Sequence to fold (258 residues):
Amino acid sequence: MKFQVKELNLTRDVSTGNYDELWSIKTLKFAFGLVVVFFILFSLMDIALSQFPDDLERNLFANTEAIKEKKVFKEEQERVEKILDKLIAANEDSLRDLPYTIKVVEKGYENAFAAIGGKIYVTKKLIERSEEETGLAFIIAHELAHHQLRHCSRGKGRAVLYQIFTSFLNPEGLISMQFVPALTMKASNRGWEKNADRLAFELISNTYQELDKFLDFFERDAAKGNAFSDLDQSYLGSHPASKDRIKYLQELQANASN
Fold:
């Protein structure tokens, strides 16, 4: 048998781990570059959308619905519409020129949120728990404030950018890097919530003379919570925890009284 010399194929050095180390360094560099690009695009988009024109928002999103609700809750709908009308009438000169609408939706949780185009949604369950008009008015004013601060258009832009970012990630190696922009967006959203609370307090202060019980909803929410859920909301949630929120709003109220 004739001996033939065969060329050896290159193999990774599994004895020293050099191959894995090199792969890890390249992965980290790629991930770091991707995050840097994300933050640059994130900042540029945020600046652009913070100047989003009212007429453009009206034309593009006036006829869209974030939630389609077939049921009509007449009593609850009339209640929130009356409050929204009061808020708009008392603050008309300072509000953006949008076709503001409010809609009651049936969900299994208590929530309210703003959607691009001047829309506000409030769940039936939240309305049922809001005994005081000023408390419900503050919640609606908070969503109205999101529109004034252009959080809806900026949030929509961020969502698109986040989807693009995550589509570049390798599910086997870099999927955990989604956590970086996600946490950054949540932290930024908590700042938005605080700014919306500040403006909402101004809106209801211009609308109502007595605000003694506007914090009742948040105080009841804080009373039924526990330390873990409160911590989770404070550090990982997009909304501030009720206890933190109450403290901040009490400070605003105290400053307004002085």
